[in-house]
Amino acid sequence: MDGKNEIRKISLAGFFPAVVAMKAEDWRLVQICAVTVDDGYEMSYSFSKGYDMVTLRLEVDENEEIASITHIYPCAFLQENEAEELFGVKIGHIEPDYHDKLYRIDEETPFKKKE
Amino acid sequence: MAKRSIVPFGPQHPVLPEPVHLDLVLEDETVVGAIPSIGYIHRGLEKLVEKRDFKQYPYVAERICGICSCGHGLGYCMAVEEIMNIQVPDRANYLRTIWVEMSRIHSHLLWLGLLADAMGFESLFMESWRLREKILDMFDETTGGRIIHSVNQVGGVQKDMDSTMLNDILSAIKDIESQLKPIINTFLQDYTVQSRLKGAGVLSREDAISLGAVGPMLRASGEPYDVRMLGYGAYKDLSVEPIISTDCDSYARCEVRLKELLQSFELIREAIGKIPDGPISVPVKGNPAGEYFVRIEQPRGEAIYYVKANGTKYLDRFRLRTPTTSNIPPMVEMLKGCQLADVPILILTIDPCVSCTER
Questions:
Q1: What crossing angle do the helices spanning B90-118 and B122-143 adopt, rounded to 10°?
Q2: What is the DSSP annotation of B231-263?
Q3: Which helix (H) or strand (E) covers residue B24, if one does?
Q4: What gap in Å lies between CA B105 and CA B327, rounded to an integer?
Q5: What is the dihedral angle through the alpha carbons of B251, B256, B260, B262, rounded to the nearest 10 degrees?
Q6: What pLDDT band is residue A5 in, cutting at 50, 70 and 90?
Q7: Which domain holds residue A20?
Q8: B211–A74: do the CB atoms touch at under 8 Å?
Q9: So what's the pLDDT on residue B205?
Q10: How many domains does chain A have?
């Protein structure tokens, strides 16, 4: 059995409607991954349906805020809090928001690339 | 209206082998909400990928967890191999499959022991862990390590098994299987076990899917999703089918894991019967450039490995989404409506691995 495994690039403006559409089509959220790139972040939101997996790829500047998807996919809260705390990605209105206290670590945004 | 109170649960608790904390919101003794909290053992192992040669990183990846270590090494190597377009020899795929199925047996036996211990069923706990020792001995014989195996490498595996070793595995699993059957019978038939598990922690199929449950937790809610069906490793040549239950409760989660143990014995037998001769690895030339997501079925459920490489020997990013990360949100939902006394058992039924989750 072959499962689709593709990455779709998406703009910040189109991100939220795309996630709503995934939910409406019964895709389940399987992972959220943050990667530091030169002047910001690359966020990957992967969804699965049957054995197919589609990843929505979003590139944001360091100070751009992404809307939390926890109001669409409540199970996103751990991974969104993790991206915010370890990388410094700005994610608005996570429910619940741990306010950088998900991990009990001393260093701020340890996974963010330092100068 | 009953008075509400908040009871802290964990991070240290007799049923928890690893630290996780929950703020339980109670009305009398009924749980009406739970807020999970982790973060006691974050190690930042993903970050190390930027400072280790990509060929060395499997040693780090398998140290993410002491139970699914073989699978973590495998998931990482598969992602790099996909990026570098490396065709792993068939024999290596079979060896990898045998080892990860042994890991599944190890993990499920460990979980059964913990469950029995949490119920106060000491003899069942000891019987389960006595059998687990035999699996660890098999790992010791075939890899040289009981917990950390260091067999996976980019391009194949580092160690082969000769026919004597394969026959030893066959006789060992025959022995374990015969001794496991009375244990399975006790777990499925005993009054004590049934009274603690039946009807407890019900998670509907719809909730399991929408809240992102994976592995035995998802399959026990009736969803036949098992990543081994994708046919990675040697699974494409083996008879693997998702094992499900439609009861959706804690008993169903126990039943699914028990049946998966028997399935793993069969898969190992089939793999040993079909294992081809040939090389166990191919040379790896150059450095990876690109990115890939890999999914594998760990004992606790679907794990997702992401690798992003930049053409040097150091990778940009390695990300692991563990099964427990996915199973915590449905666990929180499952706890609502249960009695405080059932909370420890219900948490155990997701088979939490906090070490993996925090990485």
A1: 160
A2: -TTTGGGS-------SS-SHHHHHHHHHHHHHH
A3: strand B21-27
A4: 20
A5: 60
A6: confident
A7: 5-92
A8: yes
A9: 92
A10: 1
CB-neighbour burial class of residue B62 (10 A; exposed 0-12, middle 13-18, buried 19+): buried
Picking from B229, B316, B325, the nearest residue to A78 by CB comes out as B325
Residues of A whose CB is below 8 A from B211: 74-75
Residues of B within the annotated binding site? 46, 65, 68, 320, 353, 356
pTM, to two decimals? 0.91
A39: CB partners within 8 A, 6+ apart: A61, A62
Amino acid at B43: R
Q: Is the peptide bond before B242 cis (omega within 30 degrees of 0)?
A: no
- A111 domain residue, yes or no: no
What CATH code is carried by the domain that includes residue B94? Answer: 1.10.645.10
How many CA atoms within 13 Å lie on the side-chain side of B125?
10
pLDDT (0 to 100) of residue A115: 62
The range of the structural domain enclosing residue B84 comes to 44-358
CB A74 within 8 A of CB A50: no
Q: What percent of chain B has pLDDT over 70?
A: 100
- B31: three-class secondary structure by DSSP: strand
Tell me the pLDDT band of B275, cut-offs 50, 70 and 90. very high
Averaged pLDDT for residues A100-108: 79
DSSP A6-20: EEEEE-HHHHHHHHH
Amino acid symbol at B69: S
Task: Share the mean pLDDT of chain B.
Answer: 90
Strands (E), chain A: 5-10, 28-37, 40-49, 52-61, 65-67, 90-92
What's the DSSP call for residue B288?
Answer: -
Any idea how long chain A is? 115
Chain B positions touching A78 (Cβ under 8 A) are: 36, 38, 325, 328-329
- Between the alpha carbon of residue B150 and those of residues B54, B73, B294, B328, the distances in Å are 15, 8, 20, 29
Query: Which ipTM was obtained for this model?
Result: 0.90
Amino acid letter for position A2: D
User: How is chain B split among helix, strand and coil, in percent rounded to 5?
Assistant: 50, 15, 35
Q: What is the pLDDT averaged over residues B87-106?
A: 95
Tokens 């139970």 belong to B67
Cα atoms in the 13 Å half-sphere on the side-chain side of A27:
20
Check: CB of residue A67 under 8 Å from CB of residue A80.
Answer: no
Query: Which pLDDT belongs to residue A29?
Result: 92
> Is A61 contained in some domain?
yes
Q: B26 lies in a domain?
A: no
Report residue B306 CA to chain centroid gap: 18
* Chain B residues within 8 A of A29 when measuring between CB atoms: 212
The answer to whether position A110 is within a domain reads no
Coil/strand/helix, residue B349: coil
Is residue B13 in some structural domain? Answer: no
